[in-house]
Design brief:
- There is one protein chain.
- The protein is an alpha+beta fold.
- It is 19% helix and 43% strand.
- It has 3 helices and 11 strands.
- Strands 4, 5, 6, 7, 8, 9, 10 and 11 form an 8-stranded mixed sheet that branches. It has a 3-stranded antiparallel sheet with strand order 1-2-3, with no helix packed on it.
- The longest helix has 13 residues.
Length: 187
């Protein structure tokens, strides 16, 4: 143990709240006595990423526009976990995968749960491995979504990551950890 102690929160107020995010301003005192005020905390619902492999060893990935970056990105299928998912990453992952890609899978497995940014975010990102991915229907987009599905050979994924083709850092972590769990990469 390091002996590090938590900050003491003396006050907290929500400064923004909508269906996607709550922003909280905390007044804190660090163990050193330093006052940290305000410290902004971003309260998001948990997210889920799906690393989906077809039987012929290809990844089912999405290409879509990301407004904050102003760019089109290659990403994993996934999204926000809904209350209807019952807090189950596998249920959420299967739902998001079907909605975004029109694909299903023979098997879904939970791989890992990580924190995207524990300094400011309250949520977790859950990685689900889908094996035996195959087309099962049509895509069903949320408002503003437009997604092109791409099948990427697993043999190409490390090169694509190194070349910066996959920009989202939590997607890179999910890809590497799920492919390791599937026995497709080692490190």
């Amino acid at each position: 143990m390091t002996g590090l102690k938590h900050w003491h929160v003396t006050a907290s107020k929500v400064v923004l709240a909508d269906r996607w995010i709550r922003v909280r301003a905390d007044s804190c005192i660090a163990p050193s006595g330093d006052v940290v005020d305000p410290f902004y905390v971003l309260e998001y619902s948990d997210w889920v990423h799906v690393v989906a492999l077809t039987d012929d060893d290809r990844l089912v990935m999405n290409r879509q526009y990301r407004h904050a970056a102003g760019e089109v990105h290659l990403e994993l299928p996934g999204g926000v976990m809904d209350t209807a998912d019952g807090g189950d990453p596998i249920v959420a992952g299967a739902r998001e995968f079907r909605e975004e890609t029109g694909y299903g899978a023979r098997e879904f497995r939970r791989v890992v749960s990580l924190r995207p940014n524990p300094a400011t975010h309250t949520n977790r990102v859950h990685t689900v491995l889908a094996l035996g991915a195959r087309p099962e229907g049509t895509q069903s987009f949320d408002n503003g979504e437009e997604i092109a599905v791409e099948l990427i050979p697993v043999a190409d994924v490390l090169r694509l990551i190194r070349e910066g083709e996959v920009q989202q850092s939590t997607h890179v972590a999910s890809l590497l950890l799920a492919l390791a769990a599937a026995g497709r990469v080692t490190f």
